[in-house]
Amino acid sequence: MNNEQKTEIFRANLDAVQTRIEAAARSAGRSADDVTLVAVTKYVDAQTTALLADAGAIVLGENRPQVLDEKFKALTGRKIRWHLIGHLQTNKVKRVIQQAALIHSVDSIRLIDAIEKHSVALGLTTHVLLEVNVSEESAKHGIAPEGLPAMLEHCQRLTAVRIDGLMCMAGLGADAGETREQFSLLRQLRDAHRGSGCDHIALEELSMGMSGDFEMAIAAGATLVRVGSTLLEGIERG
Fold first, then answer.
1. What confidence tens digit (pLDDT) does each residue in 137-173 have?
2. Beta strand 59-62 with 201-207: parallel, antiparallel or unpaired?
3. Using CA atoms, how far apart are residues 64 and 16, in angstroms rounded to an integer?
4. What average pLDDT does range 38-53 have in this prediction?
5. How many domains does the chain have?
6. Quick one: residue 151, left, alpha or beta (phi over 0 = left, psi -120 to 50 = alpha)?
7. Is 1 domain-assigned?
8. What range defines the domain where residue 116 resides?
9. Do the beta carbons of residue 50 and residue 72 sit within 8 Å?
10. Number of H helices, E strands in the chain
């Protein structure tokens, strides 16, 4: 399969996912314009990622800071907005905040303080989401739902970080009913804490939903859906 064929497959897959996003939004009484597709590229190399961008993917999500760095450099000059959607360690913050338009996975005071420190030093405003462990699984990263108020109170002191919203992942092995409940919980948490009076705590975005459940996420209010494997159907991964 040549690159032109791969690009055409990507274009068809993007169109199909966008059609599903539009249908899910319409069923929920929402506008599809309020839902952003984050095309997840963790499964493929930089060359294949470039073809996905050529097919029309504008917002790309990467899991690992090192791979984000590699692809950011390899795809310089393209109209791409990179999102970091995976776990971030404090020692990787300085580079990531210079590359990612949005960090989805802020899960501790220690991490957000590191982002604040480096953002101030570099003269940047860094946009982040707070990751909430709505399934309360011990193996998952994220702030416990009951810990969110304290985290938001701490964030009021920041000067160089903007809290755009919240992020979650459905529980491993959760059935459809459990997944809907977890997505609904994230929206309830967002709604309960909006209007803090802080200009830099907007809580406008909800990042939730992946290939297997993004339509349920849209029904629950998702504004960012992270779709990877569905976009890669028919493509050799590498």
1. 777 889 999 999 999 999 999 999 999 999 999 988 8
2. unpaired
3. 27
4. 94
5. 2
6. alpha
7. yes
8. 102-207
9. no
10. 8, 8
